[in-house]
């Protein structure tokens, strides 16, 4: 039986024309059961311009952060495979399809897009500063985490529903560090992770800060290491880089954890 696909597109102040074109191309290529656009703090006209798309638009009046937006979208899906692609369209549609197919066909539990893979095709690069900061973060993450990939932050990933149900309650990072935490937790739970080379082009109008985001990612990588240790029962240091009272994303969003565990009872 064919496995169903759900796709989430997190968006904050998107280029509406580019987002519309990207969603239409994704819908045509992937033929997902559901596309959800998780839209943070949008202008009224943005919602109106997107309403004609073959997608569910969940617009909220605040900025939740990328991690919280993707989590909200994944939790709303009821599909066998849950994938996301960043709204800037940097990852080529065909590459998103390849990532999804790795999970849909059972080859892996979490497929991770990669711009830094030797076989990736980078059509246009980031600024020298952003590229070097990204390389530095990847170097740091590989030394902090048990899971080693060349690109933790590429904006396209897909995950099996069972792996998602297990990992989701452990996630805390509501911003850009969500990606690295997801990999660390999924790996700690013993699921398979594959890195998939992508065709990628830099989006010059990205809302990602070249300075603040890498610093937060570095702190997030430390916290991700500690949470992975907690998942595996490692009694090592679990305080460095961790906010003492930081809630899980599910707690932030007010989502019942039991709803995420239902898949294990089927």
From TrEMBL:
All residue ranges annotated as the Glycosyltransferase 2-like domain in the record: 39-129
Pfam families: Glycos_transf_2 (PF00535)
GO biological process, one term: protein N-linked glycosylation
Alphabetical keyword list: Lyase
GO terms of molecular function: lyase activity
Key word Lyase present: yes
InterPro entries: Glyco_trans_2-like, Nucleotide-diphossugar_trans
The protein, known as: Methylaspartate ammonia-lyase C-terminus
Species this protein is from: Natronobacterium texcoconense
């Amino acid at each position: 039986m064919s496995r169903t696909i759900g796709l989430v597109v997190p968006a904050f102040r998107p280029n509406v024309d580019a987002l519309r074109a990207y969603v239409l191309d994704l819908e045509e290529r992937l033929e997902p059961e559901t596309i959800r656009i998780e839209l943070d703090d949008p202008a009224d006209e943005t919602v109106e311009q997107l309403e004609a798309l073959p997608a569910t638009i969940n617009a909220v009046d605040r900025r939740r952060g990328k991690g919280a937006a993707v989590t909200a979208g994944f939790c709303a899906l009821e599909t066998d495979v849950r994938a996301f692609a960043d709204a800037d369209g940097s990852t080529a549609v065909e590459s998103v399809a390849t990532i999804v197919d790795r999970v849909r066909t059972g080859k892996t539990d979490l497929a991770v897009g990669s711009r830094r893979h030797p076989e990736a095709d980078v059509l246009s690069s980031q600024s020298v500063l952003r590229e070097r900061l990204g390389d530095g973060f990847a170097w740091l993450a590989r030394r902090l985490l048990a899971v080693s990939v060349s690109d933790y932050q590429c904006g396209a990933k897909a995950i099996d529903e069972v792996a998602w149900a297990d990992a989701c309650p452990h996630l805390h990072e509501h911003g850009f560090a969500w990606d690295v935490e997801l990999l660390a937790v999924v790996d700690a739970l013993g699921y398979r992770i594959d890195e998939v080379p992508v065709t990628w082009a830099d989006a010059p109008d990205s809302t990602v800060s070249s300075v603040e985001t890498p610093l937060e990612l570095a702190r997030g990588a430390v916290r991700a290491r500690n949470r992975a240790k907690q998942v595996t029962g490692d009694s090592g240091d679990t305080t460095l880089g961790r906010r003492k009272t930081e809630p899980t994303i599910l707690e932030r969003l007010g989502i019942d954890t039991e709803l995420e565990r239902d898949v294990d009872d089927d």
